[in-house]
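BUG: 3D viewer hangs when loading the predicted structure for this chain

Environment: internal workstation, default settings.
Expected: structure renders.
Actual: progress bar stalls at 90%.

Input used:
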Amino acid sequence: MRKKPKIYSASAPLIMGILNVTPDSLSDGGLYLSPSAMLERARAMVRDGAGIIDIGAESTRPGGVETGEGEELSRLIPAIRAVRAEFPDVPISADTRRPSVAARAAEAGADIINDVVSDISGGYPMAKAAAEAGIPLVITHNIRGIQKEGDFFENFISDMRSKISAALAAGVERDCVILDPGIGFGKTPRQNAELVARLAELRALGFPVLLGVSRKSMFSPIVGDDFSDRDDATMAAGVFAVLQNSADILRVHDVKRNANAVKTAVALKNLWTK
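Structure tokens produced before the viewer hung:
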């Protein structure tokens, strides 16, 4: 039986470091394509406090160019194998939209499937891939190209309930479900803000929650477009999640600054509540 990775900590959110082996990701495209640069990035993230490394080989930025499956595999699989060899005990998440790629990633050593589309049609093929590998699945709320009438947040919770049910029906175990509200992914800035503010209501469904707001455009009206400034906003959102007890995993680019912010927020919170 494959050992399940640690996806939850009662004391503080886990930091998931982002490792993009892509030429066109929004803020770090092309920086980690070489094996040496990729491994050095992984080493730095682990040293700085990452509890999970999320490896992606296809950009999910708005307007990004679609990557062919073969090209995605050629970037993703060697990266997973190299990071696994270097860090046998650090959980690796494979960031992908393709069930076939997810299956290959699990074979290569990935411990978590980060499903960035979470299409439940056809029996939820991505969930089946996770179930067959016996590893956790991140279910993401993605409404790009989808319009619904009615209250946004009510629709959101209903959508997530449906995705959870589909994942469980496909064979994913309850303790292998992780929920991602999908900040961005077709939502307006106001909707994104509402999701962050009401994240505890998603967590109340009974599953760990992953918050991925790192360098997102939702922060542009507040701090502008500079990625360093967006890193500041990312840390603020992470601290807010700590104070609200609303997130179990924070997916970030700047691991060190976010890890320090979380540790500080947790320490202050614990002192205040004693």
